[in-house]
Specification:
The complex is a heterodimer of chains A (about 250) and B (about 160). Chain A is mainly α and about 250 residues long. Chain A has helices at about 5-25, 35-65, 70-75, 85-90, 95-115, 120-150, 155-165, 180-185, 195-210, 235-245. The longest helix of chain A is centred in the N-terminal third of the chain and has 29 residues, at about 35-65. Chain B is an alpha/beta fold and about 160 residues long. Chain B folds into two domains: about 10-90, 2-Layer Sandwich (GMP Synthetase, Chain A, domain 3); about 95-160, no CATH class. Chain B is built from three helices and seven strands, in the order αββαβαββββ. In chain B, strand 6 (about 145-150) and strand 7 (about 155-160) form a beta hairpin. Chain B is elongated. The interface between A and B is medium-sized, with 28 and 25 residues. Bound molecules: zinc ion (ZN). The site of zinc ion has 8 residues of chain B, from loops.
């Protein structure tokens, strides 16, 4: 595998996670439990989708086959999407969305901190920019985890259930293969396995503060997202997201 | 093409005429969004812009406004490039920009960039009555770059331009 192929795949992975998560967050627009949270979730959707756009623009440039960011977003099918399954699950209730935000943004923050010495200047710049935003996402979701976990009996039970339900999707955060090996040797990517203990520490600290139980790490763990094997939910999401550009491929606005 | 190319100083002046679409009292130069302007070896003008936030929805509008301004000033061939090589920070906003922000009713970012962990503990003076009796309502406001505050003295909500 060439460096170019590896970088293209790596950028797609980052972009797909963020585009799909951003889409799920955007589904809260107009449906948030209170106005401030509606706005907060829409803001975070925007951060993710905006960041995904830059990543896809750069991915298209690296691929150099005449595609652009819109073609990569709207004209790839389910099997070509490389996001982890965690981000494609339906938005659920507010607690479920917050639990996912917490698990994902904690990882994204650590990942982007680790990319501070990335040898690719464009990727380095984009991730340094987004790191500031993931710190906000992390802090926002962490506060809610504590508030809901250490809240009422019902909020406690529901946030615990969300954490439990999402747990088997978290191992994919650390997925690595040849793509990572090639880029690690180029000093562009980092060994994600090395982030695992920090991630566990941050997650466990907050769960404890929230009086929540830490689920079993040894349970069955989902996989496949990075290889295009998804849950049934992604197809419906893409159906909605891609409908307009597929019906009117040349549409401009 | 224009017969004599405007100097780079003039180009900066032209660009200062472009308003920020979300905070129209500020222009894109004093916001720190325009990073570079130069002629390349073929005398083609390049303008580099950088977003305040990754998902800043105003970015497309800003790029279009910059292009429109350059067309208006007689440029035919130029390139507007989104540049991520430097990370936008509120430090790049000029003093003048901070003053205008306050006048407009948005509490300007404090000089020291602070990380998100501290925002809740910071005292942000009310842009309307200068009271320090204010409280953070939400870290997310009407746009990605702003947080929502409430003033307990004049009982007005206000926005604060977050330091990043
Ligand atoms: Zn006041």
């Amino acid at each position: 595998m060439t460096k170019q192929e590896a970088l293209f795949t790596y950028l797609l992975r980052l972009a797909d996670d963020r585009l799909i998560l951003g889409h799920r967050l955007s589904e809260w627009c107009g449906h948030g439990p209170v106005l401030e949270e509606d706005i907060a979730l829409a803001n975070m959707a925007l951060d993710n989708i905006g960041h995904a756009t830059s990543l896809l623009t750069y991915a298209a440039e690296v691929e150099d086959k005449g595609r652009n960011e819109d073609q990569l977003a709207f004209f790839r099918d389910v099997r070509e999407y490389t996001n982890i399954k965690l981000v494609e699950l339906p938005k659920g209730d507010f607690g479920f969305t917050i639990a996912r935000q917490f698990l994902f943004s904690t990882f994204a923050m650590l990942h982007y901190e680790a990319l501070k010495d990335c040898a690719d200047p464009q990727l380095k710049g984009m991730t340094a920019k987004a790191l500031k935003e993931y710190r906000y996402h992390h802090r926002h979701s962490k506060q809610w985890i504590i508030r809901l976990g250490d809240g009422t009996k019902e909020s406690h039970e529901r946030i615990q259930k969300s954490i439990n339900d999402l747990w088997m999707y978290t191992n994919e955060l650390f997925f690595m293969n040849e793509v990572d090996e090639v880029l690690i040797s180029e000093k562009i990517a980092v060994n994600l396995e090395k982030l695992r203990s920090d991630w566990q520490k941050l997650v466990e600290e907050t769960l404890k503060e929230a009086t929540l139980e830490i689920p079993d790490y040894k349970q069955y763990m989902q996989q496949g997202g990075r290889n295009g094997i998804h849950t049934e939910h992604l197809g419906y999401l893409l159906g909605e997201m891609q409908q307009l550009p597929r019906m009117y491929p040349e549409a401009q606005w | 093409m224009i017969d004599t190319m405007p100097s780079i100083d003039q180009v900066w002046e032209f660009l200062s005429e472009v308003e920020d679409p979300e905070i129209p009292v500020l222009n894109v130069v004093e916001m720190g969004i325009v990073r570079k302007a130069y002629y390349d070896d073929n005398n083609k003008l390049w303008v580099h812009i950088t977003p305040t936030y990754s998902g800043c929805p105003a970015m497309t509008a800003i790029e279009m406004d910059v292009r429109a301004k350059l067309f208006e000033k007689g440029f035919k061939e130029f390139q507007v490039k989104t540049d991520f090589s430097e990370i936008w920070t509120t430090d790049w906003m000029t003093h003048e920009a901070q003053r205008k922000l306050k006048e407009y009713g948005i509490a300007p970012p404090k000089a020291m960039p602070t990380n998100a962990e501290e925002l809740g503990d910071k005292v942000i003076p009310c842009p309307w009555c200068d009271s320090l009796e204010t409280a953070l309502e939400s870290e997310f406001g009407s746009t990605a770059c702003k947080a929502l505050f409430y003033c307990h003295s004049c009982h007005q909500p206000f926005e604060h331009f977050k330091c990043i």
